[in-house]
Amino acid sequence: MSVKSDCVFVDLVDQISALYECLPSPEDKKNVQYWINHLSGELDKIKRNEYAQNLFDLIVNGFLKYPFNQPPPAGRLPDYCDIVNPRLNPFAIPKNEAVFRRDSEDSRILSRFKPPNCFIRQPGKRIFKEMREKCKQAKSTCSPCPPLCEPINNCKEVTRLRICPTSTVTVGCPEDIKNREEVEKLIDAICPATLLDEFAAQVARFTCDKGQEMFRFISKETNYFRKIVQSVFESLNKDMIKALDEEQARVKDNYEAWERFVLTKTKNEMDVILDIIPDFNWDEMKNNRSYLWFKIYPPFRK
Protein backbone atom coordinates (compact mmCIF):
# COMPACT_ATOMS: atom_id res chain seq x y z
CA MET A 1 0.00 0.00 0.00
CA SER A 2 1.45 3.41 -0.97
CA VAL A 3 2.24 6.01 1.64
CA LYS A 4 0.01 8.69 0.09
CA SER A 5 -3.10 6.52 0.43
CA ASP A 6 -2.29 5.58 4.05
CA CYS A 7 -4.23 8.23 5.99
CA VAL A 8 -3.09 6.93 9.38
CA PHE A 9 0.60 7.22 8.52
CA VAL A 10 0.17 10.65 6.93
CA ASP A 11 -1.68 11.88 10.03
CA LEU A 12 1.06 10.52 12.32
CA VAL A 13 3.77 12.19 10.23
CA ASP A 14 1.90 15.50 10.45
CA GLN A 15 1.65 15.22 14.24
CA ILE A 16 5.34 14.27 14.52
CA SER A 17 6.28 17.27 12.37
CA ALA A 18 4.21 19.55 14.65
CA LEU A 19 6.11 18.31 17.72
CA TYR A 20 9.47 18.17 15.95
CA GLU A 21 10.84 21.33 17.59
CA CYS A 22 10.10 20.04 21.12
CA LEU A 23 13.02 17.60 20.99
CA PRO A 24 15.89 18.70 23.24
CA SER A 25 18.95 17.92 21.10
CA PRO A 26 19.77 18.43 17.40
CA GLU A 27 20.87 14.79 17.20
CA ASP A 28 17.38 13.60 18.14
CA LYS A 29 15.84 15.87 15.51
CA LYS A 30 18.20 14.46 12.89
CA ASN A 31 17.36 10.86 13.88
CA VAL A 32 13.62 11.59 13.70
CA GLN A 33 14.06 12.98 10.20
CA TYR A 34 15.99 9.86 9.17
CA TRP A 35 13.26 7.60 10.56
CA ILE A 36 10.46 9.49 8.80
CA ASN A 37 12.29 9.21 5.47
CA HIS A 38 13.00 5.52 6.08
CA LEU A 39 9.41 4.73 7.09
CA SER A 40 8.11 6.52 4.01
CA GLY A 41 9.79 3.84 1.92
CA GLU A 42 8.44 0.92 3.97
CA LEU A 43 5.91 -1.17 2.03
CA ASP A 44 4.33 -2.99 4.97
CA LYS A 45 1.48 -0.79 6.23
CA ILE A 46 1.11 -2.43 9.66
CA LYS A 47 4.83 -2.32 10.39
CA ARG A 48 5.11 1.26 9.12
CA ASN A 49 2.23 2.54 11.27
CA GLU A 50 3.47 0.66 14.33
CA TYR A 51 6.89 2.32 14.12
CA ALA A 52 5.33 5.74 13.47
CA GLN A 53 2.92 5.40 16.42
CA ASN A 54 5.71 4.45 18.84
CA LEU A 55 7.87 7.30 17.55
CA PHE A 56 4.99 9.75 18.10
CA ASP A 57 4.40 8.47 21.66
CA LEU A 58 8.07 8.93 22.56
CA ILE A 59 8.15 12.48 21.16
CA VAL A 60 5.05 13.37 23.19
CA ASN A 61 6.79 12.10 26.34
CA GLY A 62 9.73 14.35 25.55
CA PHE A 63 12.57 11.85 24.97
CA LEU A 64 13.70 9.24 22.48
CA LYS A 65 14.90 5.76 23.30
CA TYR A 66 16.04 2.75 21.32
CA PRO A 67 15.67 2.29 18.37
CA PHE A 68 14.72 5.89 17.53
CA ASN A 69 17.73 7.47 19.27
CA GLN A 70 19.89 6.00 16.48
CA PRO A 71 19.71 6.15 12.68
CA PRO A 72 17.47 3.43 11.19
CA PRO A 73 19.11 0.21 9.99
CA ALA A 74 19.59 -0.37 6.29
CA GLY A 75 17.14 -2.54 4.37
CA ARG A 76 13.76 -3.84 5.47
CA LEU A 77 12.76 -3.15 9.05
CA PRO A 78 12.09 -6.07 11.43
CA ASP A 79 8.94 -6.23 13.52
CA TYR A 80 8.87 -3.61 16.26
CA CYS A 81 8.45 -6.22 19.00
CA ASP A 82 11.64 -7.93 17.79
CA ILE A 83 13.80 -4.82 17.56
CA VAL A 84 12.97 -3.74 21.15
CA ASN A 85 13.30 -7.27 22.59
CA PRO A 86 16.09 -7.20 25.24
CA ARG A 87 17.15 -10.75 24.37
CA LEU A 88 17.97 -9.68 20.80
CA ASN A 89 19.32 -6.24 21.65
CA PRO A 90 21.25 -5.75 24.94
CA PHE A 91 20.91 -1.95 24.71
CA ALA A 92 17.11 -1.98 24.63
CA ILE A 93 16.88 -1.58 28.43
CA PRO A 94 19.12 0.58 30.66
CA LYS A 95 21.78 -1.00 32.83
CA ASN A 96 20.11 0.03 36.08
CA GLU A 97 17.12 -2.18 35.16
CA ALA A 98 19.28 -5.25 34.49
CA VAL A 99 17.73 -6.99 37.50
CA PHE A 100 14.70 -7.79 35.35
CA ARG A 101 16.73 -9.64 32.71
CA ARG A 102 16.21 -13.34 32.24
CA ASP A 103 19.76 -14.30 33.27
CA SER A 104 19.58 -12.48 36.61
CA GLU A 105 19.06 -14.33 39.88
CA ASP A 106 16.77 -11.64 41.23
CA SER A 107 14.55 -11.87 38.15
CA ARG A 108 13.66 -15.46 38.98
CA ILE A 109 12.69 -14.37 42.48
CA LEU A 110 10.63 -11.43 41.23
CA SER A 111 8.87 -13.58 38.64
CA ARG A 112 7.08 -15.46 41.43
CA PHE A 113 5.29 -12.28 42.50
CA LYS A 114 4.27 -11.08 39.03
CA PRO A 115 0.52 -10.85 38.40
CA PRO A 116 -0.84 -13.36 35.85
CA ASN A 117 -1.88 -10.81 33.23
CA CYS A 118 -2.34 -7.12 33.90
CA PHE A 119 -2.78 -5.79 30.36
CA ILE A 120 -5.80 -3.52 29.88
CA ARG A 121 -7.50 -3.87 26.54
CA GLN A 122 -8.59 -0.59 25.06
CA PRO A 123 -11.84 -0.36 23.12
CA GLY A 124 -11.60 -0.40 19.36
CA LYS A 125 -12.84 2.12 16.81
CA ARG A 126 -16.27 0.47 16.57
CA ILE A 127 -16.90 0.87 20.32
CA PHE A 128 -15.75 4.49 20.21
CA LYS A 129 -18.12 5.14 17.32
CA GLU A 130 -21.05 3.61 19.22
CA MET A 131 -20.20 5.69 22.29
CA ARG A 132 -20.16 8.90 20.23
CA GLU A 133 -23.56 8.05 18.70
CA LYS A 134 -25.02 7.41 22.16
CA CYS A 135 -23.68 10.74 23.39
CA LYS A 136 -25.29 12.54 20.45
CA GLN A 137 -28.66 10.88 21.12
CA ALA A 138 -28.57 11.55 24.88
CA LYS A 139 -30.38 14.67 26.07
CA SER A 140 -28.26 17.01 28.19
CA THR A 141 -29.87 18.94 31.06
CA CYS A 142 -27.31 21.74 30.99
CA SER A 143 -27.08 24.56 28.48
CA PRO A 144 -25.08 23.88 25.30
CA CYS A 145 -21.38 24.69 25.21
CA PRO A 146 -19.91 27.12 22.65
CA PRO A 147 -17.13 25.77 20.41
CA LEU A 148 -13.72 25.68 22.05
CA CYS A 149 -11.40 28.36 20.73
CA GLU A 150 -7.80 27.64 19.90
CA PRO A 151 -5.43 27.90 22.88
CA ILE A 152 -3.08 30.82 23.24
CA ASN A 153 0.01 28.67 22.94
CA ASN A 154 0.78 26.34 20.07
CA CYS A 155 -0.13 22.67 20.32
CA LYS A 156 3.50 21.60 20.39
CA GLU A 157 4.07 23.73 23.51
CA VAL A 158 1.17 22.48 25.62
CA THR A 159 1.74 18.74 25.20
CA ARG A 160 4.02 18.70 28.25
CA LEU A 161 4.09 20.64 31.50
CA ARG A 162 6.54 23.52 31.38
CA ILE A 163 8.58 24.88 34.25
CA CYS A 164 8.58 28.67 34.48
CA PRO A 165 12.10 30.00 35.25
CA THR A 166 12.02 31.98 38.50
CA SER A 167 14.80 33.80 40.29
CA THR A 168 16.30 31.99 43.27
CA VAL A 169 16.78 33.82 46.55
CA THR A 170 18.09 32.80 49.96
CA VAL A 171 15.21 32.38 52.38
CA GLY A 172 15.56 34.89 55.21
CA CYS A 173 13.49 36.07 58.12
CA PRO A 174 9.73 36.62 57.65
CA GLU A 175 10.22 40.33 58.37
CA ASP A 176 12.37 40.69 55.24
CA ILE A 177 10.09 42.40 52.71
CA LYS A 178 12.29 41.52 49.74
CA ASN A 179 12.23 37.80 50.54
CA ARG A 180 8.47 37.88 51.00
CA GLU A 181 8.08 39.50 47.58
CA GLU A 182 10.27 36.81 46.01
CA VAL A 183 8.17 34.06 47.61
CA GLU A 184 4.97 35.69 46.38
CA LYS A 185 6.43 35.74 42.85
CA LEU A 186 7.31 32.07 43.20
CA ILE A 187 3.79 31.20 44.34
CA ASP A 188 2.24 33.25 41.54
CA ALA A 189 4.43 31.37 39.04
CA ILE A 190 2.98 27.99 40.05
CA CYS A 191 -0.16 28.27 37.92
CA PRO A 192 1.54 29.57 34.74
CA ALA A 193 4.20 26.89 35.09
CA THR A 194 1.60 24.11 34.91
CA LEU A 195 -0.67 25.93 32.42
CA LEU A 196 -3.58 25.55 34.87
CA ASP A 197 -4.48 29.23 34.64
CA GLU A 198 -4.74 29.03 30.87
CA PHE A 199 -6.80 25.84 31.05
CA ALA A 200 -9.08 27.34 33.70
CA ALA A 201 -9.60 30.42 31.52
CA GLN A 202 -10.66 28.18 28.63
CA VAL A 203 -13.06 26.23 30.86
CA ALA A 204 -14.50 29.38 32.47
CA ARG A 205 -15.88 30.54 29.11
CA PHE A 206 -18.11 27.48 28.96
CA THR A 207 -21.73 28.03 29.95
CA CYS A 208 -22.52 24.42 30.84
CA ASP A 209 -22.66 23.13 34.39
CA LYS A 210 -19.78 20.70 33.88
CA GLY A 211 -17.50 23.50 32.74
CA GLN A 212 -18.29 25.65 35.77
CA GLU A 213 -17.84 22.68 38.09
CA MET A 214 -14.44 21.94 36.55
CA PHE A 215 -13.43 25.60 36.90
CA ARG A 216 -14.32 25.57 40.61
CA PHE A 217 -12.34 22.35 41.09
CA ILE A 218 -9.24 23.82 39.38
CA SER A 219 -9.45 26.99 41.46
CA LYS A 220 -9.76 24.96 44.66
CA GLU A 221 -6.75 22.78 43.80
CA THR A 222 -4.52 25.71 42.83
CA ASN A 223 -5.40 27.59 46.04
CA TYR A 224 -4.62 24.47 48.06
CA PHE A 225 -1.24 24.17 46.32
CA ARG A 226 -0.48 27.82 47.05
CA LYS A 227 -1.20 27.24 50.76
CA ILE A 228 1.20 24.29 50.77
CA VAL A 229 4.01 26.41 49.31
CA GLN A 230 3.28 29.20 51.80
CA SER A 231 3.36 26.77 54.75
CA VAL A 232 6.66 25.30 53.55
CA PHE A 233 8.15 28.79 53.32
CA GLU A 234 6.98 29.68 56.84
CA SER A 235 8.32 26.43 58.30
CA LEU A 236 11.70 27.05 56.67
CA ASN A 237 11.75 30.54 58.14
CA LYS A 238 10.95 29.21 61.62
CA ASP A 239 13.76 26.67 61.40
CA MET A 240 16.19 29.33 60.18
CA ILE A 241 15.22 31.76 62.96
CA LYS A 242 15.78 29.03 65.55
CA ALA A 243 19.18 28.18 64.07
CA LEU A 244 20.18 31.86 63.99
CA ASP A 245 19.18 32.33 67.64
CA GLU A 246 21.24 29.30 68.68
CA GLU A 247 24.26 30.50 66.69
CA GLN A 248 23.94 34.01 68.11
CA ALA A 249 23.81 32.65 71.68
CA ARG A 250 26.89 30.48 71.03
CA VAL A 251 28.88 33.42 69.61
CA LYS A 252 27.85 35.62 72.53
CA ASP A 253 29.02 33.04 75.10
CA ASN A 254 32.38 32.60 73.33
CA TYR A 255 32.90 36.36 73.13
CA GLU A 256 32.10 36.91 76.80
CA ALA A 257 34.46 34.10 77.85
CA TRP A 258 37.28 35.53 75.73
CA GLU A 259 36.59 39.02 77.08
CA ARG A 260 36.85 37.79 80.68
CA PHE A 261 40.15 36.04 79.90
CA VAL A 262 41.69 39.15 78.27
CA LEU A 263 40.58 41.48 81.07
CA THR A 264 41.90 39.15 83.77
CA LYS A 265 45.26 38.73 82.04
CA THR A 266 45.59 42.49 81.48
CA LYS A 267 44.81 43.24 85.12
CA ASN A 268 47.41 40.75 86.35
CA GLU A 269 50.10 42.17 84.09
CA MET A 270 49.30 45.73 85.16
CA ASP A 271 49.63 44.69 88.80
CA VAL A 272 53.07 43.22 88.04
CA ILE A 273 54.18 46.44 86.36
CA LEU A 274 52.93 48.56 89.26
CA ASP A 275 54.88 46.39 91.71
CA ILE A 276 58.08 46.79 89.69
CA ILE A 277 57.93 50.60 89.28
CA PRO A 278 59.03 51.60 92.89
CA ASP A 279 62.25 49.50 92.70
CA PHE A 280 63.00 50.24 89.05
CA ASN A 281 66.45 51.76 88.38
CA TRP A 282 66.33 54.04 85.36
CA ASP A 283 70.06 54.67 85.31
CA GLU A 284 70.75 50.94 85.15
CA MET A 285 68.39 50.62 82.19
CA LYS A 286 70.39 53.27 80.27
CA ASN A 287 73.65 51.35 80.76
CA ASN A 288 72.27 47.79 80.46
CA ARG A 289 69.70 47.03 77.79
CA SER A 290 68.86 43.62 79.21
CA TYR A 291 67.98 45.12 82.61
CA LEU A 292 64.37 45.74 81.58
CA TRP A 293 63.99 42.20 80.29
CA PHE A 294 65.32 40.49 83.42
CA LYS A 295 63.30 42.85 85.61
CA ILE A 296 59.92 42.28 83.94
CA TYR A 297 60.09 38.75 82.48
CA PRO A 298 60.41 36.67 85.70
CA PRO A 299 57.31 38.17 87.36
CA PHE A 300 55.28 37.65 84.19
CA ARG A 301 56.11 33.93 84.24
CA LYS A 302 54.57 33.44 87.68
From TrEMBL:
> What residue stretches are annotated with the DUF4485 domain?
9-79
Highest taxon, organism lineage = Eukaryota
Name recorded for this polypeptide:
DUF4485 domain-containing protein
Organism this protein belongs to = Rhynocoris fuscipes
